[in-house]
Design a protein that fits this description.
This protein is mostly helical. It contains 6 helices and 3 strands; from the N terminus they run ααβααββαα. The longest helix has 17 residues. The C terminus is likely disordered.
């Protein structure tokens, strides 16, 4: 019987579970929170061999951006509001904004204003995941995220 190679790269394909990255994601969130508190930080570079999950990790951060955007009270939403919801600086999420615009997930409606390309996408996300109402950043800050 021939088995598929588990190390075949999937070009950023999001697996059902991101194994072994919980600590990395938590460290990234804590790192972003220190920036919010005004402490200077150096750049972070994710590197590694092909197929180890670098793109998957970055896609998870994009997903956090989309969920934060869906929590805006009114759309279009300012990039500043998204940064506040994510409890980070605008400069740290601007690259993700640019990537999502490039992927046509969101678009700029005006200066520093963004909206979903598909009307009602924020409501769809809330119906799809009712727990989206909980602020994941608050859970991490309280230390609840590691109790799974």
């Amino acid at each position: 019987m021939k088995y598929a190679d588990p190390y075949t790269p999937g070009a950023g394909f999001m697996p059902g579970h991101i194994a072994g990255r919980k600590e990395t994601l938590e460290r990234a969130e804590k790192y972003l929170n220190t920036i919010v508190l005004g402490y200077p930080q150096q750049s972070v570079i994710y590197y590694g061999l092909r197929g180890v999950g670098k793109t998957v990790l970055l896609n998870a951060i994009e997903k956090m951006f989309i969920f934060a955007m869906s929590k805006c009270e009114k759309l279009p939403c300012s990039i500043l509001n998204v940064a506040k919801i994510m409890e980070t600086e605008v400069s740290s999420i601007s690259p993700y904004r640019a990537q999502l615009i490039n992927k046509s997930m969101i678009y700029a409606t005006g200066y520093a204003q963004i909206d979903f390309t598909v009307p009602g996408f924020d409501q769809f996300l809330k119906r799809l995941n009712p727990e989206l109402q909980l602020d994941e950043v608050e859970k991490v800050q309280k230390g609840d995220a590691g109790d799974e």
